[in-house]
């Protein structure tokens, strides 16, 4: 392993600016009077230190160089504290130079009038240097401020772009304003019922906001602040959040009596830029919401059309059959033997059962969609559920041999027997409808560990790979089913019923046909069932 040693001069180069920046940051947090006292005290300290060093080193006879040395505190004070501390350093340096180094020493009397010209030149040069250094300092601070503002706006734009809802947009904007301006900030969002005022934790829950000014800003989409053309006595800064011709709300920034925000044009421009970013984000979210609502409306219309088409077709067919059979039975001139009458009665019965299954599925889906699916669970022998379901679909499976395999004892699960029976009926109906006449249907009951499994397998047309994940969707029907009647609700109801029982349903493509498996939590079999 190689160890890299950092030279001492690099340590100084890295750590000194960090120390200097921390000192400057701690200094800028002081109140303005305290900062002024600190600046002038620092100037006095630098002047005293320089005077002491020069005086103790006995540089009395090199007065030109001594005068030049007094320009150092001027440059430092101007660069660090500003123009007026630099001018103070120049004046103080002139007084110190005269008192300690110009004969007669320790007196402000001047023995040679030529020194007065030197004093004037020194003062002009010092004040000019102070002005230049202060100007450089001011420009550096402005550049740093612009860079900080640009970084804040960049971070804010990225965060607002990633925001997915209105709440996150508001929180992001308020956090950035608080971090940049170190003051209270609120956002008033325009609502149909009034104004929704938002704030970050820590800000006053009930700030002093002039409702009349806020209403004017939201109505006209213009700024209001102290000194503005309208509402020039406003205690806070009100910046509208608007995009194009729509006003979404307003920034409310500042504290009562704090007029520095309203009187500094760059702060107003920053808040306008932030308000524009927020308005763009809110406009984007509103557009996405409108698009989502439009998609929901289109999907609802599509589903409504599908429901009407399916129901009208599914109801019209058995109703037509029932009407024809009823008219034949009521026709006094028709000569029907007992076999024909029985056939017509069976036709009426089967059509009525078909309508009953359709209505049951529609009512079941309505209960599921409305959140009204209430389970009446009790321990149930799953063999009884399968037997009841087979009796209900006897007319559909008349042309299909049904093979039932069940262990002894049969698995028991805590279920709602009626709902689970409806789910099994739907699986058996699908198996019969999508299988050719004579194709068998296998029903298997099994216990696998802590699970009870009901499997219904047909030997029909099967499903394709891309349909495996869609067969349980509402109103979905394969393009290959042709004119086979159906609404596309049966498997959706099966999945909803199974999931309501905390179970799981899965589909497997077979060769040929399809297998559907319902997995439920099994209960231990009673002892009397084991001894039968």
Write structural notes for this entry.
By secondary structure, this protein is an alpha+beta fold. Helix content is 57%, strand content 14%. The protein is built from 15 helices and 11 strands. Strands 5, 6, 7, 8, 9, 10 and 11 form a 7-stranded mixed sheet that branches. Strands 2-1-4-3 form a 4-stranded antiparallel sheet, with helices on both faces. A hairpin with a 2-residue loop joins strand 1 (185-191) and strand 2. It is elongated, with a radius of gyration of 44 Å.
Helix content: 55-70%
SSE ordering: HHHHHHHEEHEEHHHEHEEHEEHEEH
H/I helix tally = 15
Task: Output mean pLDDT.
Answer: 76
| Beta-strand proportion | 5-15%
Sheet with the most strands, sense and barrel status: 7 strands, mixed
Number of strands: 11
- pLDDT < 50 stretches: 1-30, 527-532
Q: Give the overall form.
A: elongated
| Category by helix and strand content | alpha+beta
Distance between the termini: 77 Å
Please compute the radius of gyration using only Cα atoms. 44 Å
Catalytic activity: ATP + protein L-histidine = ADP + protein N-phospho-L-histidine
Membrane topology: Multi-pass membrane protein
Domain Histidine kinase: 310-524
Pfam families: DUF4118, GAF_3, HATPase_c, HisKA
Summary of the model, kept short:
This protein is of the alpha+beta class and 532 residues long.
